[in-house]
């Protein structure tokens, strides 16, 4: 087996395990961790990083949700209501992704992360 291929798979496994753990504990990690990891460590192009992170989030949230539902720490009514809007927003966002530059994605994503961090601290 090719050594480079094996190392790349180890990075993928570590990335998945780390983001899965953070998602399970904090309820986030998909976009906040995956996009920078996919860009900087796995060297994926900006647009593909965002799209790939969104696809991976499906698995992160499914795994965490199974545990949350089984423990009763889940608001099904609220989830249903918010999901309706998030589906619409997801379609619009995915359509817009291909129309913006990588630089715009990086800057806007960074600003959103800074605002989120400040809100959590204060």
β-strand number = 0
Low-confidence stretches: none
Average pLDDT level: 85
> Beta-strand percentage?
under 5%
Proportion of helical residues: over 70%
Structural class: mainly alpha
Distance between the termini: 50 Å
Order of H and E elements: HHHHH
Major sheet details:
none
User: What is the CA-based Rg, rounded?
Assistant: 16 Å
Q: Could you give a short description of this structure?
A:
By secondary structure, this protein is mostly helical.
Features:
122 residues; mainly alpha; 5 helices; globular
Task: Describe the protein.
This protein has 122 residues and is mainly alpha-helical. The chain has helices spanning 3-26, 30-41, 46-71, 76-97, 102-121. The longest helix has 26 residues, at 46-71.
SSE blueprint:
Blueprint: H1 3-26, H2 30-41, H3 46-71, H4 76-97, H5 102-121
Helix pairs in contact: 1-2, 1-3, 2-3
